[in-house]
Amino acid sequence: MKIGLIDVDGHNFPNIALMKLSAYHKGLGDTVDWYSGIEHFDCVYMSKVFAFTPDDSRVIQADEVIKGGSGYKLFNQWLPDEVEHICPDYSLYPTYSSAYGFLTRGCVNKCSFCIVPRKEGTIRKHADITEFLDGRKSAILMDNNVIASDWGLSQIEKIISLKIKVDFNQGIDCRLIARDKSIAKLLKRVSWIRYIRMAYDNSAITEEVKTAIAYLKEAGIPAYKMFFYMLVKDGQIEDAEMRALNLDLLGCTPFAMPYRDLDNDTPPTEEQKRFARWVNCKAVFNSCTYGEYKG
Description:
By secondary structure, the chain is an alpha/beta fold. It has three domains: 1-95; 97-167, Transcription Regulator spoIIAA; 171-176 and 194-295, Transcription Regulator spoIIAA, CATH 3.30.750. The protein has helices at residues 16-27, 81-84, 116-120, 130-133, 150-162, 174-179, 181-188, 206-219, 237-249, 270-280, 282-285; strands at 2-7, 31-34, 41-47, 62-68, 99-101, 104-105, 124-125, 138-141, 165-168, 191-192, 196-199, 226-232, 253-258. It is globular, with a radius of gyration of 20 Å.
């Protein structure tokens, strides 16, 4: 068979589903390539992660077209186990040197703004780091709440023993660190690619955020290595500004993410985007208040 792939979001970040499908089909002896728009394919897979990404508008020349991913709001669609638990075909994205995958799936929390509870349910074991490591010395891990799982904690121990540098790019739950100081000590032993990422999505968890930061500092992780995603909702700019300034005062890095209502396809307001520009441009954030910002 001749298999075509379309990364609808673009090539700024490797698409794990497509890499696994490629590895699976190549294992069957099929020919796999990026869809060109010129040749005819037996089957074309289109994968979209983000709902706000415009769909590929081309007329697809293929006997079969299969669409998948959260971007199509296909929350109950999963790859078959024989595809899901295969080492990805990293040759699709040759400029990326890290491994990519999930150790756990799901989350113990049920945040109203998050699709994970609908898509993945509660947290559960998914894979061992060696399943997708492929001999690489660093890994980008996309677990939604890895330290809420005993399996996830044991995998972090394994990552430490293997001396793999990692980035949990969806963040680690600082509330769990605040409840258990030993987690901070464990995370100190990890080799981080750049940051330890967490979230500070509303002022209700301010004390837990401060406690987690204190525990991490006590364990030996400097504040400049702590990066916090901040959800910014319409009408809550004042709350978001307070959170950003709290983090700055503690020496951490805030990163504002304007909230987008995926259910109603409601994009962020101009005010949300303006606030994010102020926070995320560090030269501006460090030189003026939000009230003074003219961007």
